[in-house]
Each structure stands twice: as C-alpha cells, then as structure tokens.
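ESCALATION

Customer reports they have been waiting on this structure for their group meeting. Please prioritize. Original submission:
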Amino acid sequence: MRKPRREACLRITLTAMTVLCRPAVSVVAPCFNEEDVLPLFLGRVGEVLDSMGGASELVLVDDGSKDRTWEVIEKAAVEDPRVVGVRLMRNHGHQLALPPA
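Update from on-call: job pushed to the front of the queue and completed.
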C-alpha cells in the first residue's frame, strides 16, 4: 500500500524560488547513509543559520542512501521551512550530488 502524498513532499522535491524570495544564504550538503548523524548536523547548522538572521535555506541531497536518511530529511523539511530535500535514486558520489551553482 502506497503512502498518501503530502503537500510537504511536493515542496521537498519541487521547490522553485523566484528572484524576490531567494535566500541570502544557501547551504548544500550531500547525504549518504547519514541517518544517525543528520539530526545533530541539522541542529548545528540550524543554530548557525538562526544566528545569522535573514533568509536562508538548507538543501540536503540524499545521494542514494540505503538507510533512513530520506525519512530524516522529509521530517526536517516538514518541521523547518528552510530545509529542502533532493533525492537521487542511486549513489553518484558527493561531487556529482552537488549541482553547479
């Protein structure tokens, strides 16, 4: 049985920002089997972004993880509107997981 799609899932995977609402700071982090450490990372990066003020985003790229990394990213995106998740279907390596800006 498939899980029902939530509006948050669409926002996680298909976030498009206009020039008017583009964040001042974007942090992009590749994630591969990071289920255990991702909550700590999210807390630390969140504190830094909070201290900076202004608009910011945290883009987490799940690079084909085999653990629950994607579920952690989904939960974080629901709880914090700054978090954007990108899910790659297989491991591409951390350099290919980060698209050029």
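Sent to customer with the following note: The helical segments are 7-13, 38-52, 69-79, 94-97.
Escalation resolved.
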